[in-house]
Every structure is written in C-alpha cells, then in structure tokens.
Amino acid sequence: MFVLLMYVDKFITPIKWLKNINKTSIYIGGPIYYFAFYLLVYNKKRWDAYVEEFKDESEKQRKCGNFIVIAYLIGSILLFFISLPILYG
After folding, report:
1. pLDDT in tens, the chain (89 residues)
2. Distance between CA 10 and CA 4 in Å, rounded?
3. If you ran DSSP here, which 8-state letter would residue 18 be given?
4. What is residue 72's predicted lDDT score, i.e. its pLDDT?
5. pTM higher than 0.70, yes or no?
6. Long-range contacts of range 3-11, CB-CB < 8 Å, 24 or more positions apart?
7. Where are the domains of the chain?
8. CA-to-CA distance for 21 and 45, rounded, in angstroms?
9. Which 8-state DSSP code applies to residue 42?
C-alpha cells in the first residue's frame, strides 16, 4: 500500500501529509494500526477457518495456490525495491 502511495505522490499528485507526519501521530497511530492488524490478519480463529475451508484441496490445487502466494510475495517485494530508485532518483 505504501508503494502505491509513493507512486501517487510522485506521478499523479503530491501527498503533502506524508511529509509532515509528527511523532505524536506515529505514537498514536502505531498501536491503532497494530491492533487493527491483529483483528484483521492475525486472528487465530480466522486462520483456523481458512485451514478448515481448504482442507479438501487436491495436490494440484494446493501447488497452484502456493505458487500464486509466492509469486505475490516476490512480486510485491520486487516492486518495492525497483520503485525506490525510480521514485527518488
């Protein structure tokens, strides 16, 4: 999401609030972000529901799903590092 914000800031319109963030906002926003992250992503019951949902997958479906997840992870990391010299060069 931050990479997309960098692209918008560089090529479409400057986002001035990204440059003027003070420490108080970080100290207040950080815990709120981590609490929301816990509720949305790290919830143990939700992960158990995912395991239950996909337990009957075939080996071919599992390999395809693993490939998609790994491609997404590698692609997002590469997009971030490739965009740094482009946006700040």
Report:
1. 667 777 777 778 777 766 677 778 778 888 898 898 888 877 778 788 888 988 898 999 999 999 999 999 999 899 888 888 877 76
2. 10
3. G
4. 94
5. no
6. 3/76, 3/79, 3/80, 3/83, 6/83, 6/87, 7/83, 7/87, 9/87, 10/87
7. 1-55, 57-89
8. 35
9. S
For residue 68, what pLDDT is reported? 96
Side chain identity, residue 22: N
Tokens standing for residue 88: 């700040």
- For residues 87 and 10, the answer to whether their CB atoms sit within 8 Å is yes
Structure tokens at 60: 């071919």
Which pLDDT does position 54 carry in this prediction?
87
* All residues at 6 or more sequence positions from 62 whose CB lies less than 8 Å from its CB, including other chains: 54
**C-alpha span between 32 and 59 (Å, rounded):** 39
Dig out the tokens for 17 from the structure. 């609030």
* Contact residues for 79 (Cβ-Cβ < 8 A; gap 6+): 3
Q: Please give the C-alpha separations between residue 69 and each of 5, 17, 25, 74, in angstroms, as whole numbers.
A: 23, 33, 33, 9
